Amino acid sequence: MAFLSAIRLIQYDAVPWELVAVFAIGTALLVGPVAWTARNQLPEKRRENLVYIAGAIALLCAPVILGLGLIFDNLTLFMDAGALGSIVGFAVALLVERLIVPKRLHGFAQ
User: Fold this and answer.
1) Can you give the residue range of the structural domain that contains 67?
2) Are 35 and 105 in contact (CB under 8 A)?
3) Which keywords are on file for this protein (predicted)?
4) Is position 53 within any domain?
5) Does residue 106 lie within any of the structural domains?
């Protein structure tokens, strides 16, 4: 998916690398430090409730983002930048978790 998005992004006249970077940084922060802190500080039941709330917020934001993309006629640009940036951000957070973060904060140590 990231490869296909990267190919389509390169075909644009002005490649929106700053938009890709914004998605990558946002994803890396949400998947990385925010998740590690929540895993360390909150009990499991409370984390489960927060995941439901975050999922509901994401589902409510999706139509707004799709609507803005359709209004400004650049929906594929946002989708490609979001896909590539999110996958890159997730990969960076996973790499940092494996190399730097203490074992007690790992998501897979359970």
Assistant:
1) 45-100
2) no
3) Membrane, Transmembrane, Transmembrane helix
4) yes
5) no
